[in-house]
Amino acid sequence: MGKLLEDLALRDRVYVFKDRAMAGRLLADRLLDYRGRAVRVFAIPAGGVPVAAEIARVLQVPLDLVIVRKIQFPWTTEAGFGALNPAGEAVFNQDLIDRFQMTPQDIETQVQKTLANLKQREERLRQNRPYPDLAGATTIIADDGLASGYTMRTAVNFLKGKGAGKIIVAVPTGSARTVQDLLPLVDELLCLNVRGGWSFAVAEAYEDWYDLTEAEVLEILKSLAQNSE
């Protein structure tokens, strides 16, 4: 079971961060022990990139991306029943599959659509670079929040397969239920704003929240690289 690190003063509160960059700086303050050490930092795009960029900047390490995608239901782009990693491996929410009586053909169709989208993002955002052999390195995975947690779960599993050592998930906000579900898979889970209740939305942690474009993601990565030269 991993260790949960949270800010109890922020428990169950909403609109506690100005934006993703501010939240990233607050996370970075809690990760200062890793500055100057051989750690790897990965962001889940798009929303995780401005968060992770602040962590990478403070820790003075390069930032990489791990491209994982939610597997959407056929009838909506707002919800999904699992997630896919860069190796094409899926993690499913079986309860949702059963609830909506999805057939194997339904599932396979959505997986293939998601895989095609993932490959396009790999090309645009990572230029199809191979993922590194992490060789036991401490690995920090950042996103802007944990709702269902399936994209983070598949990112964790994928990077473990690449040889990650200690796994630290760093997110500004997260559903209390998802946090508990994820803890057995990681060594540390840094989540400043843990929220319970019957509903959860990542956006409710931020005063300024919007969907980032891929162009913005690339600009953040370019700026970070230039500042580290």
Compact overview of the structure:
This protein is α/β, with parallel strands linked by helices. Helix content is 37%, strand content 20%.
Descriptive overview:
There is one protein chain. This protein is α/β, with parallel strands linked by helices. It has 2 domains: 3-66 and 136-227, Rossmann fold, CATH 3.40.50; 70-126, no CATH class. Helix content is 37%, strand content 20%. The protein contains 7 helices and 9 strands; from the N terminus they run βαβαββββααβαβαβα. The chain has helices spanning 20-29, 48-59, 94-99, 104-126, 150-161, 176-182, 214-227, and strands at residues 3-5, 39-43, 63-65, 69-72, 80-84, 90-92, 138-142, 167-175, 188-195. The strands form 2 sheets. Strands 1-9-8-7-2-3 form a 6-stranded parallel β-sheet, with helices on both faces. A 3-stranded antiparallel β-sheet has the order 4-5-6, sandwiched between helices. Strand 2, helix 2 (48-59) and strand 3 form a beta-alpha-beta unit. Helix 1 packs parallel to helix 2 and helix 2 runs parallel beside helix 7 (214-227). The termini are far apart.
- E-strand count: 9
Q: Please give the CATH architecture of the largest domain.
A: 3-Layer(aba) Sandwich
Shape by Cα distribution? globular
Task: Output the number of helix runs.
Answer: 7
Structural class designation: alpha/beta
Assigned CATH class of the largest domain: Alpha Beta
- Spatial order of strands in the largest sheet: 1-9-8-7-2-3
Q: Can you give the helix content as a percent range?
A: 25-40%
Average pLDDT over all residues: 91
